[in-house]
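Every protein is a chain of amino acids, and every chain bends into a shape of its own. Below is the pair of lines this work produces for a single protein:
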Amino acid sequence: MELNFPQTVTLPLCRLYKAHFRSTAPRYLSLIYDRFYPHFFSAMKKLILSLAVLASAASVANAQTGIKVGLKGGLNGATFSGSDSKGSEYKAGFAAGALINFGVSDNFSIQPEFLYSQKGASVDNYRGTNNLTLKSTLGYLDIPIMFRYNIGEDGKGFFVELGPQGSFVLHNRDFYQTGGNNTQSTENTSTNDLNKVVIGYAGGIGYQLTSGLSLGLRYTGDFSKVYKDGASTTLKAATGTSTPFAQNPVVQNSVFQFQVGYAFGGK
Protein backbone atom coordinates (compact mmCIF):
# COMPACT_ATOMS: atom_id res chain seq x y z
CA MET A 1 0.00 0.00 0.00
CA GLU A 2 1.35 3.36 -0.97
CA LEU A 3 1.04 6.29 1.39
CA ASN A 4 0.44 9.69 -0.12
CA PHE A 5 0.70 12.78 2.03
CA PRO A 6 -0.82 16.02 0.86
CA GLN A 7 1.50 18.88 0.06
CA THR A 8 -0.03 20.87 2.86
CA VAL A 9 1.72 18.42 5.23
CA THR A 10 4.99 17.62 3.40
CA LEU A 11 5.98 21.16 2.49
CA PRO A 12 5.98 22.48 6.07
CA LEU A 13 7.88 19.38 7.24
CA CYS A 14 10.57 19.85 4.58
CA ARG A 15 10.94 23.51 5.45
CA LEU A 16 11.22 22.65 9.13
CA TYR A 17 13.93 20.02 8.43
CA LYS A 18 15.92 22.44 6.28
CA ALA A 19 15.77 25.12 8.95
CA HIS A 20 16.88 22.63 11.62
CA PHE A 21 19.81 21.42 9.49
CA ARG A 22 20.97 24.95 8.77
CA SER A 23 20.96 25.80 12.47
CA THR A 24 22.66 22.61 13.70
CA ALA A 25 25.10 21.80 10.85
CA PRO A 26 27.76 24.34 11.97
CA ARG A 27 27.70 22.85 15.46
CA TYR A 28 28.13 19.28 14.12
CA LEU A 29 30.88 20.37 11.78
CA SER A 30 32.62 22.17 14.63
CA LEU A 31 32.33 19.03 16.78
CA ILE A 32 33.83 16.89 14.01
CA TYR A 33 36.65 19.43 13.54
CA ASP A 34 37.46 19.62 17.27
CA ARG A 35 37.41 15.84 17.69
CA PHE A 36 39.30 14.66 14.64
CA TYR A 37 41.50 17.49 13.34
CA PRO A 38 44.06 17.55 16.22
CA HIS A 39 44.57 13.78 15.89
CA PHE A 40 44.85 14.11 12.13
CA PHE A 41 47.42 16.91 12.47
CA SER A 42 49.42 14.91 15.04
CA ALA A 43 49.39 11.81 12.85
CA MET A 44 50.51 13.79 9.81
CA LYS A 45 53.33 15.40 11.79
CA LYS A 46 54.56 11.98 12.98
CA LEU A 47 54.34 10.65 9.44
CA ILE A 48 56.37 13.54 8.04
CA LEU A 49 59.02 13.17 10.77
CA SER A 50 59.21 9.41 10.16
CA LEU A 51 59.66 9.98 6.43
CA ALA A 52 62.40 12.53 7.14
CA VAL A 53 64.24 10.07 9.42
CA LEU A 54 63.95 7.31 6.83
CA ALA A 55 65.22 9.65 4.13
CA SER A 56 68.21 10.62 6.28
CA ALA A 57 68.96 6.97 7.06
CA ALA A 58 68.75 6.09 3.40
CA SER A 59 71.06 8.97 2.54
CA VAL A 60 73.66 7.75 5.07
CA ALA A 61 73.29 4.16 3.94
CA ASN A 62 73.86 5.21 0.33
CA ALA A 63 76.91 7.34 1.10
CA GLN A 64 79.86 6.04 -0.86
CA THR A 65 82.07 5.52 2.21
CA GLY A 66 79.29 3.95 4.32
CA ILE A 67 79.55 2.95 7.98
CA LYS A 68 82.61 1.18 9.32
CA VAL A 69 83.27 -0.45 12.69
CA GLY A 70 86.66 -1.41 14.00
CA LEU A 71 89.20 -1.89 16.76
CA LYS A 72 92.24 0.11 17.71
CA GLY A 73 95.01 0.12 20.28
CA GLY A 74 98.41 1.59 20.98
CA LEU A 75 100.89 3.12 23.36
CA ASN A 76 100.48 6.18 25.59
CA GLY A 77 103.10 8.61 26.82
CA ALA A 78 101.30 10.39 29.68
CA THR A 79 102.20 13.19 32.05
CA PHE A 80 100.63 16.12 33.95
CA SER A 81 100.41 19.73 32.76
CA GLY A 82 99.24 22.78 34.70
CA SER A 83 100.39 25.12 37.44
CA ASP A 84 101.34 22.32 39.87
CA SER A 85 102.96 20.00 37.33
CA LYS A 86 106.59 20.82 38.21
CA GLY A 87 108.68 17.65 38.21
CA SER A 88 106.14 15.67 36.17
CA GLU A 89 107.74 13.17 33.81
CA TYR A 90 106.21 10.98 31.12
CA LYS A 91 105.15 7.45 32.00
CA ALA A 92 104.25 4.61 29.63
CA GLY A 93 100.75 3.21 29.29
CA PHE A 94 98.39 1.84 26.66
CA ALA A 95 95.00 2.47 25.10
CA ALA A 96 92.60 0.07 23.37
CA GLY A 97 88.98 -0.05 22.32
CA ALA A 98 86.44 0.22 19.51
CA LEU A 99 85.44 2.78 16.87
CA ILE A 100 82.53 3.58 14.55
CA ASN A 101 83.22 5.61 11.42
CA PHE A 102 80.33 7.39 9.69
CA GLY A 103 81.24 8.40 6.16
CA VAL A 104 79.79 11.80 5.24
CA SER A 105 81.61 12.03 1.92
CA ASP A 106 84.57 10.34 0.22
CA ASN A 107 87.02 12.41 2.26
CA PHE A 108 85.16 13.50 5.40
CA SER A 109 83.89 11.29 8.24
CA ILE A 110 82.82 11.44 11.89
CA GLN A 111 84.37 8.83 14.15
CA PRO A 112 83.25 8.22 17.76
CA GLU A 113 85.60 5.98 19.76
CA PHE A 114 85.37 4.10 23.05
CA LEU A 115 88.85 3.58 24.50
CA TYR A 116 90.30 2.37 27.77
CA SER A 117 93.31 4.64 28.34
CA GLN A 118 96.08 4.64 30.97
CA LYS A 119 97.24 8.08 32.04
CA GLY A 120 99.03 9.62 35.02
CA ALA A 121 102.61 10.75 35.62
CA SER A 122 105.83 10.19 37.50
CA VAL A 123 106.46 13.28 39.68
CA ASP A 124 110.06 13.71 40.88
CA ASN A 125 110.91 15.61 44.09
CA TYR A 126 107.24 15.60 44.97
CA ARG A 127 106.13 18.67 46.96
CA GLY A 128 109.73 19.86 47.02
CA THR A 129 110.96 16.80 48.92
CA ASN A 130 114.25 15.45 47.56
CA ASN A 131 114.34 11.79 46.54
CA LEU A 132 110.54 11.46 46.88
CA THR A 133 108.73 10.42 43.72
CA LEU A 134 104.99 10.08 43.22
CA LYS A 135 104.02 7.32 40.77
CA SER A 136 100.45 7.83 39.52
CA THR A 137 98.52 5.55 37.15
CA LEU A 138 95.00 6.60 36.20
CA GLY A 139 92.57 4.53 34.16
CA TYR A 140 89.91 6.28 32.06
CA LEU A 141 87.19 5.47 29.56
CA ASP A 142 87.89 8.00 26.81
CA ILE A 143 85.09 8.86 24.35
CA PRO A 144 86.48 11.16 21.65
CA ILE A 145 84.30 12.24 18.71
CA MET A 146 86.76 12.85 15.90
CA PHE A 147 86.03 14.91 12.79
CA ARG A 148 88.34 13.34 10.25
CA TYR A 149 89.45 14.58 6.83
CA ASN A 150 91.35 12.33 4.44
CA ILE A 151 93.70 14.11 2.07
CA GLY A 152 93.93 11.17 -0.32
CA GLU A 153 91.23 9.88 -2.68
CA ASP A 154 88.29 7.70 -1.60
CA GLY A 155 89.02 8.15 2.11
CA LYS A 156 92.52 6.68 1.86
CA GLY A 157 95.99 8.12 2.39
CA PHE A 158 96.98 10.77 4.94
CA PHE A 159 94.34 12.19 7.28
CA VAL A 160 93.98 14.84 9.94
CA GLU A 161 91.49 14.66 12.82
CA LEU A 162 90.22 16.89 15.61
CA GLY A 163 87.39 16.70 18.12
CA PRO A 164 86.13 16.90 21.70
CA GLN A 165 86.70 14.17 24.25
CA GLY A 166 84.93 13.11 27.42
CA SER A 167 86.76 10.91 29.94
CA PHE A 168 85.38 8.90 32.85
CA VAL A 169 87.55 7.69 35.73
CA LEU A 170 87.69 3.92 36.11
CA HIS A 171 90.47 3.36 38.62
CA ASN A 172 93.53 4.86 40.32
CA ARG A 173 96.84 3.48 41.58
CA ASP A 174 99.52 5.66 43.13
CA PHE A 175 102.39 5.24 45.57
CA TYR A 176 105.59 6.97 46.70
CA GLN A 177 109.19 5.95 46.16
CA THR A 178 112.01 7.27 48.30
CA GLY A 179 115.77 6.98 47.77
CA GLY A 180 115.42 6.01 44.13
CA ASN A 181 113.59 2.68 43.97
CA ASN A 182 114.68 1.41 47.37
CA THR A 183 111.53 2.07 49.41
CA GLN A 184 107.92 2.02 48.24
CA SER A 185 104.89 3.18 50.18
CA THR A 186 101.57 1.35 50.43
CA GLU A 187 99.57 1.67 47.24
CA ASN A 188 96.53 3.95 47.21
CA THR A 189 93.61 2.93 44.97
CA SER A 190 90.99 5.44 46.10
CA THR A 191 89.37 7.71 43.50
CA ASN A 192 87.83 10.07 46.10
CA ASP A 193 90.19 12.94 45.19
CA LEU A 194 89.63 12.62 41.43
CA ASN A 195 87.13 14.39 39.22
CA LYS A 196 85.02 11.53 37.92
CA VAL A 197 84.24 13.22 34.55
CA VAL A 198 86.88 15.14 32.60
CA ILE A 199 86.32 17.21 29.44
CA GLY A 200 89.09 17.67 26.91
CA TYR A 201 90.08 17.53 23.26
CA ALA A 202 92.03 15.35 20.85
CA GLY A 203 93.83 15.96 17.58
CA GLY A 204 96.15 14.01 15.36
CA ILE A 205 97.46 12.86 12.00
CA GLY A 206 97.71 9.46 10.41
CA TYR A 207 97.62 7.27 7.35
CA GLN A 208 94.71 5.10 6.17
CA LEU A 209 95.54 2.03 4.06
CA THR A 210 93.15 0.51 1.52
CA SER A 211 93.05 -2.74 3.50
CA GLY A 212 91.31 -1.00 6.44
CA LEU A 213 94.49 -0.69 8.51
CA SER A 214 95.38 2.75 9.86
CA LEU A 215 98.33 4.24 11.73
CA GLY A 216 98.00 7.42 13.76
CA LEU A 217 99.75 9.82 16.12
CA ARG A 218 97.42 11.72 18.44
CA TYR A 219 97.62 14.22 21.30
CA THR A 220 94.90 14.49 23.94
CA GLY A 221 94.64 17.24 26.53
CA ASP A 222 92.10 18.12 29.22
CA PHE A 223 90.33 21.37 30.05
CA SER A 224 89.16 19.88 33.36
CA LYS A 225 91.50 19.23 36.27
CA VAL A 226 92.53 15.72 37.31
CA TYR A 227 91.92 16.36 41.02
CA LYS A 228 89.06 18.03 42.86
CA ASP A 229 89.58 21.44 44.45
CA GLY A 230 90.46 21.46 48.13
CA ALA A 231 92.34 19.27 50.57
CA SER A 232 93.39 15.78 49.57
CA THR A 233 92.43 12.67 51.52
CA THR A 234 95.48 10.68 50.35
CA LEU A 235 98.31 12.89 48.98
CA LYS A 236 101.05 13.74 51.45
CA ALA A 237 101.83 17.30 52.46
CA ALA A 238 105.34 18.72 52.11
CA THR A 239 107.88 17.87 54.78
CA GLY A 240 107.74 20.22 57.80
CA THR A 241 104.09 21.24 57.42
CA SER A 242 101.57 20.91 60.23
CA THR A 243 99.02 18.86 58.26
CA PRO A 244 99.56 15.30 57.01
CA PHE A 245 97.73 15.83 53.71
CA ALA A 246 98.29 18.40 51.00
CA GLN A 247 95.93 20.42 48.86
CA ASN A 248 95.07 18.58 45.67
CA PRO A 249 97.39 19.74 42.85
CA VAL A 250 96.09 21.79 39.93
CA VAL A 251 97.04 19.56 36.99
CA GLN A 252 95.53 18.26 33.76
CA ASN A 253 96.22 15.07 31.83
CA SER A 254 98.50 15.44 28.83
CA VAL A 255 98.94 12.37 26.60
CA PHE A 256 100.66 11.47 23.34
CA GLN A 257 99.30 8.33 21.67
CA PHE A 258 100.57 6.08 18.90
CA GLN A 259 97.63 4.05 17.58
CA VAL A 260 97.04 1.17 15.19
CA GLY A 261 93.47 0.54 14.02
CA TYR A 262 91.53 -1.71 11.70
CA ALA A 263 88.07 -0.88 10.30
CA PHE A 264 85.57 -3.29 8.72
CA GLY A 265 82.83 -2.48 6.20
CA GLY A 266 82.16 0.61 4.13
CA LYS A 267 83.56 1.13 0.68
The CA atoms of residues 231 and 247 lie 4 Å apart. The helical segments are 7-61. The domain at 66-265 is CATH 2.40.160.20 (Porin).
